[in-house]
Amino acid sequence: MMRIGYGGIRHETNTFSTVPTDVAKFKQLLYGEKEEVTIQNTGVRSYNGGFIDEAAAQGVELVPALFANAVPSGLITREALESLRDKLVSYLLEAHEAQPLDGIALTLHGAGVADGYPDIEGEIIGAIRKAFGPDMPIGVVLDLHGNITPEMVHGSDVLLGVKGYPHVDEYEAGRHMFRILTEAIRTGEMPKMRLVKLPWTFAPAKAMTVEGPAHEIQQFCLQVEREEEDVIHTTFFHGFPYSDIEQAGVSVVTIAKTQEAADEAAQKIAAFAWERREQLISKTVSPAEAFDKAEALVTDLPIVINESSDNPGGGAPGDGTHLLREMLKRNLPKTAFGFITDPEVAKQAAEAGVGATISCRLGGKTDKLHGEPIEIEKAYVKGLSDGKFVLVTPMGAGTAMSMGLTALLQVGNVLVVVGSVANQTRDKCPFEVMGIDYTQMRILGLKSSQHFRGWWQERSEIVPCDPPGIHSGDLDVYDFKHLNRDQYPFVMDKTWTAESILR
Fold first, then answer.
1. How far apart are CA 11 and CA 312, in angstroms?
2. Domain limits for position 354
3. Exposure winner among 184, 284, 295, 311, fewest CB in 10 A?
């Protein structure tokens, strides 16, 4: 029976965040060693869940090592990266020594940055390659927002990413990568890959794949796979500029049976995407503008206003007050915010108890960029919870999540969910766990860029807003130290041709 070791370390690092990422941050969200990894991911629509189901379907023995995933935040500490890397490698070696592994499957991100390690994925893949030698087949599945480096591609035999944003296809990407890896092991013929780095970067704010230019690029990738017989998989990586590394930006990675097919597919996709670059420039929208638009809508569906710039899923603190301040100012009936992160206020509400009225300074405690604290004289404590729920969205359905100690405050007409642990809102759960029936609400505020669309797209009208924050769509506001600014849109007349990649 074929034996495949698996595990990984995932983090999307926003280097503009002042919140460092240590081992405790990984253990706060999702951390497992050996069999814990399989227990945590069985029946879950995740990359690892895809590995598990595909291995079972093929009759492959899957050997878990270590998997650690932290909420996007600031720079990973050197100690955290090195300790997790070394433990992952040692557990894989331990499994290999007990009975030889035939391959290794890794779930990484692609935009991880640690103190002293600007490319943690290249570092992790390289460490495993060094430990196992050049002949061990290594497959890697990455996030769409990976800043892909040559070290990642050269150190692996199979490397691909999800195509959707929101990433509703994580499970399918995990299964597909696993199939490619095991087929290569069985036949002894490793596929060929091609990496193309485009001189282009863009913010995630407009890049949803449910519609618009990113959707067109996604569909073109699928078309190339259908029409080109030797092409196995293609990924258009959006990149993640907020990592602020030299390699941050847009990439194309193709996998094919021949090098020629991989090269030609990469050229076609890169050219197709480059022609749509102007359509992916984001424009900021203030909370006031968003509310004006929301109030003018005629619809029977709830209206979701998403605050992209304070998206914890992109490393923002989640305690920004710009959108919530506008919501409280409008004080409209049937409005709810789910949720803002403020452990101090959640604790204060819990100590006061349900039915009490408190005064508090809500949010705005990480930095001034995301807004000052909101001074609230009277907030009625309507409910309390441990904040635990299980995702129902297609992106990660079955994943256990927690907002930590959570309070539901009523301020005037507005219901405000206050959590203790930052994370973006993906589905109805942060509202539902506090007893809010979203179908009875007129306007809902939440913090997310696109992942919330995986569940909310068909259940609401969506109005984005993008006030100041470290996940803003306006890249001109950032003081980049390392990102290459000799690329579009920093250089609006940047010229480039995809034909150059085949020369």
1. 12
2. 287-472
3. 295
Question: What Cα–Cα distance (Å) separates residue 422 from each residue in 171, 397, 405, 447, 489?
Answer: 24, 19, 11, 10, 31
According to the model, what pLDDT value does residue 502 have? 62
Contacts (Cβ under 8 Å, ≥6 apart) of 8: 47, 48, 66, 67, 68, 88, 106, 107, 108, 124
Q: Are 354 and 308 contained in the same domain? A: yes
For residue 120, the domain's CATH number is 3.40.50.10830
- Alpha carbon 40 to chain centroid, angstroms: 19
Last residue of a domain, one of 190, 207, 232: 190
How many folded domains does the chain comprise?
3
Helix and strand numbers, DSSP H then E, in the chain:
14, 19
- Per-residue pLDDT at 153: 98
Question: Do residues 120 and 114 touch, judged by C-beta distance below 8 A?
Answer: yes
Contacts of 503 (CB under 8 A, 6+ apart): none
User: Which residue ranges of the chain lie beneath pLDDT 70?
Assistant: 500-503
Q: How far apart (Å, rounded) are the C-alpha atoms in residues 165 and 449?
A: 10
Tell me phi and psi for residue 310, to 5 degrees.
-115, 40
Does 200 lie in the same domain as 181? no
Residue 210 sits in a domain whose CATH number is: 3.30.310.50
Q: Which pTM does this prediction carry?
A: 0.91
